[in-house]
Structures are given as structure tokens and as C-alpha cells.
Amino acid sequence: MHSELESINKKIVCCKKCPRLARYIRSIAKTKVKRFNNERYWGRPLTGFGDFHARLFIIGLAPAAHGGNRTGRMFTGDSSGDWVAKALYEKGFASQPTSIMADDGLRLVDAYITASVRCAPPKNKPTREEFENCFPYLKEEFSLLKEIRVIVCLGRIAFDTCCKMLHIKGVDFAHGKSFTHQHLTIICSYHPSRQNTQTGRLTWKQWSMIFAKARKFLYDIK
Predict the structure, then answer these.
(1) Rounded CA gap, 130 and 6, in Å?
(2) Number of domains in the chain
């Protein structure tokens, strides 16, 4: 299984299916922003990461231009990554409460993080074709992670991607909503973007509750 995931990851990192995204992430990596001017950006598509035996599967939208696209790891080096790491740590899914850079020692425990799209898109808005190009990678990852029991979808787009992957129809997105599908529990959450966290649309209490719920479901499965 490890070798098969590694094979997928190699394909992802070298992927150039979407010319617009490929140009954009290279451009961002070259021009940078002032606060990261001395850093070398990753500037390539991102793989998922985490525990190969994970029972918790977390789906986001796409890497952030100066977060994952800079650091080379999903939800790393930006405010969304801070929220993800802290919540996972508090609920026993991560070895530390921060996610700063790819080699910072963070280890996920019983959890795996991935995304609907693997390249940072302009204005955080991938096109339909770009979603379609990335979709097979998500399906392949999920098929190889045999122990998944809970899926947390970060945002409506991640939820829609999950529903497509699992052939789920007729279920609407709402923060905190959970339901079962075959042997899986699906949990919906707002994305921990600054747009949501700084406006109060997503409070820390609401966010923490998502992973408390995931932990409870996994305890109940045992």
C-alpha cells in the first residue's frame, strides 16, 4: 500500500494537466510575497499526507498560494493550517499543535489530509475542468486507505467532491451535519479560511466540535 501511495504521489507532484494552475503556482513561487521573500517556494502540486492506517480522512479545497504552495505540505504555513493542527492535536490526531513547515516534525495519528485540487488556484477558484483533472487522484488515495471510517469535509466544495466520490445524492451541506453512508460517517464543516474565522462565521468552539465528533464516532466504532 505504501508503494502504491508513493506512486500516486509521484504522479501528483509531476502533474501538469491544468496549464492555468501550473503557470499560476510557478508564478507565485517566483514572485513570492515580501514576508516570505527569502524562502524557497515549493511551487508544485501537493500530495496528501498523514497516517497510512488512518481512520479519519480530511478533505480540503486546495493548497493556499503562500501556505501549502510555499511549504510543500497541505494546511501548513498559514492560518488555516494553524486551526487544523491545533484541533487535531487537541483531539489526539496530531503529534503537535502547529503546522509551520514540511519538516517541522508534525505527525498525524489515525488521520490523513488531502484536497479536491492539488494546485493553488487563482482567487481560490478552480474551474470545473481542473476539479475533474484532479478527481482521479482523490479516488486513488481513498481506495488505498482501507481503514477510513470518518470523512471530514472542509467546505461545500470538498463536500461535493466527497459526494461525487462516494456516489451520494440528495444530501445538503451544513456545518456540523453528519450522516452515515455504508460503513462511513461523513461530517460537514465550514473551511477554516480567514474569511470564515476572522468574520466569526466559524468560531473555535464550532470548529473544535467537528473533531470532537469525529473522535467520538471512532471511539464508538471500537
Answers:
(1) 22
(2) 1
| CB distance 101 to 36 below 8 Å | no
Read off the pLDDT of residues 140-163 as tens digits, 9 standing for 90 and up: 999 999 999 999 999 999 999 999
**Domain span at 59:** 2-221
CATH number at residue 83: 3.40.470.10
pTM above 0.90, yes or no: yes
Burial class of residue 69 (count of CB atoms within 10 Å of its CB; 0-12, 13-18, 19+) = buried
Residues 94/108, Cβ–Cβ less than 8 Å = yes
Which long-range contacts link 162-170 to residues 24+ away (Cβ below 8 Å)? 162/59, 162/186, 164/135, 165/135, 165/138, 165/139
pLDDT digits 0-9 by tens, 103-135: 999 999 999 999 999 999 999 999 999 999 999
Distance CA 173, CA 33 (A): 34
Q: Which residues have C-beta within 8 Å of that of residue 41, sequence separation ≥ 6?
A: 28, 29, 30, 32, 69, 70
